[in-house]
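Hello forum,

I keep getting stuck at the same step: I have a sequence, I want structure tokens, and every attempt I make locally crashes halfway through. Rather than fight my setup again tonight, could one of you with a working pipeline run this one for me? It's a single chain of 121 residues.
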Amino acid sequence: MSNRKKTTEGASPAVTTTPIATTTTPTNKTLKLSDGRTAELRPLRVRDAIEARRIVAANSYVNKGAEPDPQEISAAMLAQILHIDGQPQHYKAVLDLYFVDFVALATEMGTGFTPADLPAS
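Reply #2:
Ran it on my machine without issues. Output:
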């Protein structure tokens, strides 16, 4: 298939180009938690996802050796990239977040759950 447009006789052919998708560098995201604290998420990297699986394998609250629970994976990934009021968070601290905050953070992180996953009140 050619990138050349049809032209009239004798005119020089025009070349069309297909734009390559533009990408932007991910930036940190800031959210207010339900208790008023400020949460900041840095962009998720592949190494964070790999480390999250290792953390869950060592600390799983679900069946050891079974397929990791998606909520635990999301919590472990959050622990890799989350600061609350300027302080880095660890896995067990993320497990102690209110679920509404966890869902908001996981949504901003781009994985895990959406507001539709919140329990009905």
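The chain has a mean pLDDT of 79. If your local run keeps crashing, start a new thread with the error log.
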